[in-house]
């Protein structure tokens, strides 16, 4: 089975007005950062939800649309995960790779998706733990 990149998804989001052309550059920079810094190749099979969230978050940030904060119990559960420190580091790298900053609420959701990504990848590559 051929591994899928995000070109088709990003083009659909662009055509639908969810993201702008500069957001594609940010997403591509984030994908490249995961590859170079963490040796993680993000593709549809392992990071579809994470990339979809980043695109939605970038679109909401540009339009000024707010989202409800993570419920406190979800945030507490997230902070209790073994992968939380690594996800915080990865989020800082994501923010450094992108030109557009996400607000704190969007960053909390990004952390949730990064932790899910770590969990998904650790099932495939246990050495990521």
Automatic annotation (TrEMBL):
Domain spans labelled PRD:
18-124
The source's domain of life comes to Bacteria
InterPro entries tied to this protein: PRD, PRD_sf
Q: Name one GO biological process term.
A: regulation of DNA-templated transcription
Protein name, per record:
PRD domain-containing protein
């Amino acid at each position: 089975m051929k591994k899928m990149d995000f070109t088709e998804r990003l083009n659909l989001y662009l055509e639908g007005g969810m993201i702008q052309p500069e957001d594609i550059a940010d997403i591509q920079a984030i994908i490249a950062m995961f590859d170079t810094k963490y040796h993680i190749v993000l593709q549809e099979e392992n990071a579809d939800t994470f990339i979809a969230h980043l695109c939605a978050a970038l679109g909401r940030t540009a339009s000024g649309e707010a989202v409800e904060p993570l419920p406190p119990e979800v945030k507490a559960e997230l902070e209790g995960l073994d992968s939380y420190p690594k996800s915080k580091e990865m989020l800082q790298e994501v923010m450094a790779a992108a030109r557009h900053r996400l607000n704190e609420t969007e960053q909390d959701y990004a952390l949730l998706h990064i932790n899910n990504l770590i969990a998904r990848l650790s099932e495939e590559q246990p050495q990521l733990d």
